[in-house]
# Entry
Amino acid sequence: MENKQIADTSKLTRFELIFIILAATITITAVSACSPLYPYNPWDDVNVFLVLGRGIIHGKVPYRDLFDHKGPLLHFIYALAALISGRSFTGVWIIECILASIYSVFSWKIVKLFKETKKHNIVLMLMFPGIIYSMGIFNFGGNAEELCFPVLTVMLYFGLKAIVSGDGLPKKNEAVICGVLTGVLFWIKYSFLGFVIGFCIYLIIIAIAHKDFKKLGALVWRFIAGFVLISVPILAYFLINNALSDLWEAYFRVNLFLYHETTAPGLAGIPVIKNIFIPVTCTIFTIKTDFTFGILLLLSALSVFFIGKEHRKKTIALLVITFVLAEGIIFSKTTFIYYYGYLLCYGFCMGLIPCVSLINKLSAMYKKDTRFVPMLTSVVLAAIYLFSIVNSKNMYLIFAPKEKLPQFQLAETISQTPDAKVLVYDFIDSGYFTTSGILPSNKYFCYLNIEQNYPAILEEQDRLIEEGYFDYIVTTYFYEEDWDNYEYVQEAAGPYVNYNRNSVYEGYKLYKLVQE
# Structure
């Protein structure tokens, strides 16, 4: 078969590259609570990741010494962030800026595959990250979904570029990159692999249709080599530290069999119906949680009507297969988690294609006044960007003093005891170890949402409390304690806005060991 190669139209100019990176960096700096403009990121999940990251650089091994059920690569990423800044999220902010820039760059490259862009169209790439990163499901920033959807966008670009300017199959070097990126996803959160499974199914179908089995074989072994390249160092780390069984227990067994598994009601409990009902229902819930998500999803779906007919069928096939499997696997549990849908942002760049088409059509209508449409669109898009940023749920914290947060209020007391042993009890740690500058002294250092199915956590915590092992215990304001050997010493409260943009009460109590 003769492969027909067409010129790649997705290359960015230097101006486009600089503009996009600046727009992404400014956006993350403005909306992420990891940014230096914020006193601290109070999200419990990312604080657990940072504790694990800090533990790694101090010789502790994830799962064996400090327990969590997220993937090891996520903890290694947070270890890198902790090397930059161990008492704040500055390192995470830098990583966010890099990944947001990658996401924005490859989003624009995807648009350029299908549309001839004018110079003023680039203002879309100011508005786009502003909308993506100011959604409520972004929450405070730094979670696994946010770090991973740019990876999927890169893979989507390789697939779409092969459709538009290649022979339908990615290049061999791109297969290696896809293998590495798949390894990244697998070792961060393997429920993110739905897209990759769909991507591989699509490529197999194309190879069979073209009878190009030789290239398919070459792509497969390079893909596997890329996956092995990222996996071997991770497995070697746990092997050297005699912690492979801990890795299996926490990352695989807990997530596969114990985490957020409940019984589906009625007909939804039937396996085939369940596999359709739950993802569809969870997607609807995500749209209800953040209506912007629904608009972006609709625009992305409509994009196929604005691309060339010669590419339409394959593009639709790739988008549908990857989306259905991505959605189906991340929403495979019956418990709805609001931020899971954030992973699906990988394909929302397709929604920019109708926008480019509209702007170019307006430009063609106003040929006599060549400045009118560029000026109008620039003003409108900049206004949408500013509106998105100002309405980010995190604005209540920007430039706030650290003393405003309970994490720092209690840390001041905890820090008075050198090498204090602390337990965060009955809730997920939201920063009490990091703001105090200490590391947990026990494996199960906080609540993790799996205690009902994994009783070892509470059993150890209650036993150590009875023995008077901890110097301090932090609980929520609403928890009623019954410990004879601990006394109440302090209460702290501060503002908190949840993903629904509702202000909720955030209050905590501090208990201290009674000295005999």
About this structure: The longest helix spans residues 213-240. The CA atoms of residues 53 and 77 lie 7 Å apart.
